[in-house]
Amino acid sequence: MNVLFFVVFLLFSSLILRLGVVQIVFGEDFKREIQRTEDVTVNTSVPRGKIFDTNGKAVVDNTPLNAITYTRTQSTTQEEELDVAKKLAKLIDKPADKVTEREKKDYWILKHPKLAEQKITDAERKKFQNKQIDDKELYQLQLDRITDKELKSLSKSDLEILAIYREMISGYNLVPQIIKNKGVTPKEFAVVSEHLSSLPGVDITTDWDRYYAYGTTLKSILGKVSNSDQGLPRELADYYVARGYSRNDRVGTSYIEQQYEDVLQGTKAKVKNVTDKDGNVIDTETITDGQRGKDLVLSIDIELQKRVEKIIEDELMKAKSTPGHELLDRAFVTMMDPYTGEILAMAGKQYEIDEKTKKPVLNDFSLGNFTTSYAMGSAVKGATVLTGYKTGALEPGQKIFDEPLLIKGTKEKSSYKNFGLINDLQALKFSSNVYMFKTAIKIGGGVYRPNEPLHINMDAFDTMRNSFKQFGLGSRTGIDLPGEQVGYEGYTQAPGLLLDFAIGQFDTYTPLQLAQYMSTIANGGYRMQPHIVKEIREPVEKSGEMGPIVEEVEPKVLNRLDMKPSWIDHVKEGFRLVAQEQGGTAYSAFYAGTVSSHPTDYKPAAKTGTAEGLYDGPKRQDFVKAGKDVPMTWNLTLAGYAPNDHPEVAFSVVVPWAYQDDPRNPRTNTNIGKKILDAYFDIKKERQEKGLDKATSIQKVENIDDVEKGQAKARKENDSGALQNDSSN
Questions:
Q1: By C-alpha distance, which of 272, 285, 278, 284 is closest to 35?
Q2: How far apart are CA 240 and CA 560, in angstroms?
C-alpha cells in the first residue's frame, strides 16, 4: 500500500509539474494559438463601364438583377453545404439544364454511399491497400459502374439540389458565388430573405447584366461579355489571374468589350475577412470601396448607324426578291470623318435562313467591314491614276486611246465600251479599263503591240502595291479593334494580272481599307488612323450623364501621300465628275432620280466599282462537292465623300457576289451610297434646326498639317526623353 501511495504521489507530482510547464513556460504560446486569427482579403466584382455614342446616348448599359449568393468558410463541411442546398431548393426554382453527367454521378455517390461501396470488389480493395491503384482510380471505377438506371433514379428535386450545390462549390472560400441571378422572382427574393438565419452562407444582393439599348445594332462590334457561369476564358485564364482577376469574373471576350477590358472592368471592392483558427469569420472590414468601370464614348452616331443598317436591309431584301441573286448574302458600309479618322457608322448585314423558322433573317455583320476582304473593282482606279503620276507613267490631263487590247495568249481586255481618245478625268468619269491597263503597262516598262505577247517588268507589282498601301489598300488601317484583316495579295505574277490589279480585280481589300483610301484622297493626302472610341470618361452614378474626360483620342496621321497636292486635286475632280456630271457612272444614282426623290444638294464625289471573278463565298464548296462549275459573280462597290469641296464624310459601300448575270445588276452599291449620304445630311439638317448640331470636322481640324505638327512634336519630345534616359544610364 505504501508503494502504491508513493506511485500515486509521483504521478500527481508529474501531472502538477507538467501543468506548471504548460501554464508558466508555454502559456503565452498556447494562448496566442487559441486567439490566432487570419486575415483573408476578398475582391468583389463591380459593374462594367457604360458605352455611349458620340452624342452621349447610352448604347451599352448595366441592368440591375436580384441575386442569391452563397459564401463558404474554410471550415464549412460538405454535409453542411448539402444541407443548405436542400433547404434552398425548397425556396427557389433552379434549372438543372447545366448539370453534367459526371456531376450526377458524383451526387449519386454522395447520396448512396453504401451502394457506391458495393461497386468495388474485394480484390480491388486489396490492390488499393497494397498501393497498386490509388484513390482516384478506385473512385473512377465507382463512377464507371453507375448505370443509367441508377442515374435516372435521381428525382427532379435531387437534380435541383445538385444544380444549387454545383454553384456553391464552384469558387474559392470566402468568395461569394452566384446561385441565381437571372429570373429571380420577387417572391423568391423575399422568401430567401426571410430564411437567411437558417441558411448559413446564403445572402441576397444586387448583381448586373449587360443591356444593349439598341438591340442588335452594332452588336457584333460592341462584343460580348462572359457570364458568371463562364467566368474567365480558359485560354486566357492564367493571364487574367496574374492580373488580379478571380476565375469566375466576367470579362470582355470580343471586340470593343475585349479591346477595352482594362478600362471597362473597373476597380473591385476589397473586403478583409478576419477568421479564427478554425476558419470561422469573426469580423469583416471593407478596405476599399469598388468603383464601376470607366465609360467609353464612341465616335459612332447611333442614329446614323440605325438608318444605315435599315438602308442595307431594305436594299439586300429588294435584291434577293428578284432572280439572279442567289449567292448575294451580305453588304457593308463604313462612314468616317476624313479629317479625324472617327468612324461615324460601320454597318454590315448578312442574309441567312433561320434553321428553326426556315425564314430569311438579316444578322448583324458590322465586324465584316474589317475582318473580311474582297476584290473592289474600279473603285481603286484613283490610286492607279495617282500611281501613274508618281512613277512618271502618266501626266495629269494626258490622253490615251481606249480600244480593246489584243494580247497574244490572253483573253481580250477592254472597257465596257470603246471610248476612243480620252484623258484621265474622263477615264475616271466613265470608268475606262483600258486607260488603267495602258497606265499599268507603262509603269511596268512594257510596250503594247496588238496580237503580240506583252512583256513587262514584274517589279511593277511591288511598285503598284507599295503605292496602294500609302492609301491604306493592302495595309492595316490601325483601327482600335482586334482581328483586322489585311487582305489577300495574288501570288501569281503575269502581265495580264498586273492589268487586272490596276482595275481592282486581283488583290482583295476590306471595306474599311476602301473607306480609308477614299478618306486619304478627300483630305488632301493624309492617311488617318480610323478609331471607334473617341473618349474615356470617369463613371458617374447619375443615369444619362457622362463624367469628366480621362482621355481623349487625338487624330493620328499614319502617313502622307508621296504625291503632289495638285495631282490629288486632279483625281478629286475626276471623282466629282463621276457623281455630279451626266455620263458619270454614279450620276444616275445621285441626280437622275432613279434611287429616290430626295434632292442631292450636298455635292458628292465618288468612284464606282464592279469586280468580276469566280464565286469565293461560303457556298463555294457546295458547287465543288456537287461536281458543278463554280459560277462567275460580280462584286459591287462605291466609295466617295461629300461635299466635294469641303469633305465632311468619306464612305465605302461593298456588296460581294451581288449578281451572276450582267443584266441582273441590281445597282445595290449606288442605291445604298445615295441613301446613306441622304441620311447623313438629313440628320445634320434636323439637328441644325433643333440647335443640336455639333462643330464639323473641318472646324475641329482647320488644318490637317496641325495634326501632323502635333504628332511630330510629341515624337520629338519622346525621342528627347529617351536620349536623356540613355545618357543618364
A1: 278
A2: 39
SS3 percent helix, strand, coil of the chain, rounded to 5, is 40, 20, 40
Lowest mean pLDDT among 217-231, 342-356, 511-525, 639-653: 217-231
User: Given the DSSP bridges, would you call strands 58-70 and 51-52 parallel, antiparallel or unpaired?
Assistant: antiparallel
How far is 620 from 613, CA to CA, in rounded Å?
13
What is the model's pLDDT at position 696? 47
378 belongs to the catalytic site: yes
Residues 6+ apart with CB under 8 A from 145: 119
C-alpha distances out from residue 249 to 176, 285, 293, 452, 501, Å: 11, 22, 14, 69, 49
Q: From the candidates 378, 431, 475, 519, which is the catalytic residue?
A: 378
pLDDT at residue number 365: 96
Q: Closest Cα partner for 517 from 693, 650, 327?
A: 650
Q: What is the pLDDT of residues 256-270, one digit of tens each?
A: 999 999 999 987 766
Nearest CA-CA partner of 53 in 707, 683, 720? 683
Backbone dihedral region of 264: left (phi > 0), alpha (psi from -120 to 50 degrees) or beta? alpha
CA angle 489/380/377 to nearest 5° reads: 75
Contact 136, 114 (CB under 8 A): no
The pLDDT mean for the chain works out to 87
